[in-house]
Amino acid sequence: xxxxxxxxxxxxxxxxxxxxxxxxxxxxxxxxxxxxxxxxxxxxxxxxxxxxxxxxxxxxxxxxxxxxxxxxxxxxxxxxxxxxxxxxxxxxxxxxxxxxxxxxxxxxxxxxxxxxxxxxxxxxxxxxxxxxxxxxxxxxxxxxxxxxxxxxxxxxxxxxxxxxxxxxxxxxxxxxxxxxxxxxxxxxxxxxxxxxxxxxxxxxxxxxxxxxxxxxxxxxxxxxxxxxxxxxxxxxxxxxxxxxxxx
Length: 247
What we know:
Helix content: 40-55%
CATH topology: Rossmann fold
CATH class: Alpha Beta
Number of domains: 1
Shape: globular
Strand content: 5-15%
Number of helices: 8
Distance between the termini: 39 Å
């Protein structure tokens, strides 16, 4: 039985992916900053481990506790939706610490075991906003675009060891907490000059049209992990597929 470690499993894409792999008889190491076993089904094949991807000690402890794994899904991340002009630099650094450097740190932490065994799969979850520019999420987009470039370079670097690296690229996902997280992080910021743009952006999450469901992402991760012929970039969700084809 194979084992997958997934970051950011408390909700959204990470939670759905953990459930998806459990249902298909994988051992799942579900990691969260604050572990909550109640959000996942009871299973002898499930372990919930504390992990803060911005903390080197936490990463080291989690990887050791997980033991040998066959796949890593770097899903942990958050978005800060606000006009860049008024977004505090500490918030921008926090976005990059989690979304970009957290992904890099986790990759570096598991690579030795993958390289030594000459097998393993790394999946980095980014966003379709890297394919189509949108306002108010400049820092978030930059943090995810960096992961895209990182992933494609790593695919060339470690393929010689039998290790695969893939991008799963979701689209608009109103069923997740992205908009909620963005709203909370905008509180207290003076964005009056951008008020109309902010209203339009937040309203866009409830507009009709193609969207990405958490299961779309879980299915894309499954494809990337189990199908060696999968491309490096895999869009997840009808809107992400459309944006990929148009890019």
